[in-house]
Structure formats: C-alpha cells, structure tokens
Amino acid sequence: AAKDAAAELRGELEEAAAEVQQLTEDEAALRLDVEKLGRAAEEAQKERTESKTRNAASIKEAEESQQALEKAMVMLREVYGKAPASLLQVDQTSSDMPALEGAPETFPDADYVAAPQRGLLELLEVAASSYASAAAELADEEKADEGQFQQFLAETRKDKEIKSRELAHKQDRRERKQMFLKQGEAELATSSDKLAKVREYLEKLQSQCKAEPKPSLESQSR
After folding, report:
1. What is the tens place of the pLDDT at every residue in 94-104?
2. What gap in Å lies between CA 106 and CA 113, rounded to an integer?
3. What is the arithmetic mean of pLDDT over 181-202?
4. DSSP letter at 88?
5. Which residue, among 37, 42, 45, 40, has the nearest Cα to 166 in the 3D structure?
6. Among 93-102, 179-188, 198-207, where is mean pLDDT lowest?
C-alpha cells in the first residue's frame, strides 16, 4: 500500500512538473504580447502627436491665408467701392499694379488668374473660399484621425488588460503548482525514508527467523 501511494504521488508530481513547465512558457509568451501591445500604443501615441501638430499647423496656415484674403477684399471694397466697375477688372497687360498686403503670391486655382474677364474681387473670393475649404477638410481629417487613434488605443488597452489578467492567472497557478511540488517531494522523500526503514526492519526480522536456534543448557548437559 505504501508503495502504491508513493507511486501515485510520484505520478502526480511528474504531471505537476510538466504543467509548471507549460505555464512558464505560456507566461513568457503572454509577457511578450503585453510588451508588444504597450510598445504599439506608445508608437501610435507618438505618431498621433506628430500628425496632430502637422495638421494644426496646416489648418492655421490655411486660416491665416483666408483671413489675409478677406482683409484684402475689405480694403478693395473700401478703395474701389465708388469707382467704376471697369476698375475692378484684371488688366492682363498691366504690370505695375501694387501688391496687396497679406495676399499670397499665387492663387490656388491658376485658371482664375489667367481669366482676363474675371474681377479681382471674384478672384480673391475664390482664393479665400479655397483656403476655407482646405482648412475645413484638414479639420475633418484631423477629427477622423483622432477617432481612429482613440479606437485603436481602446482596443489595444482592452487586449493588454485581457492578456495581463491571463498572465496573472497563469502565474498564480504556476506558483501553487510549485508549492505542491515542493510539499509533494518532501512527502515523497519522507515516505521513501520510512519505507526504507520498514524494509530494513523486515529484512532484519526475516534474517532472525531464518537463523538456526541455539541449543539450550538442558540439551547440552545431556
């Protein structure tokens, strides 16, 4: 019975040792996954910050250009408000027209600049509208990028939390299995020692039983 119990315990210890090995490998893989998710979140945050800075600068530039053109249109209306309409036409042959303060050197759409029949105010309005549209599009892109980033960040955090909980669970199970191994090995060693002592006693007893009996004093006197 003692041998059977020891053999059974030894089998359980072997299974526990194999499970500890598997849990250790699982922990290493999960720990690597958690680290990768953390790095991915950090990299995404860095890229988002850089993209947000670029978008903000582009939006600001477009808005400032729009404001400069609107300011130029106000000045033109004040100067030419009572002038004949012909003065507001673009003179393709004129080369001495003074530059407007704050106006860009070129307009977004060159077709408007090349059209001799279009008024200067109309050109400025079109340019200002183009800058306004560009600013709005950039703002929409920034909003979409931020939404995608937040979604990615939320999913990454969720995956990281799940894997972290799984890692903690496996660590706890491995530690309990290691505790079982330690106690089981100690118990097995104690059982083996006891079994060895019992075996030694039985062998000694058996040898005594097989020994020839010594003659008694009465038989010797005869």
Report:
1. 444 444 454 44
2. 9
3. 71
4. G
5. 37
6. 93-102
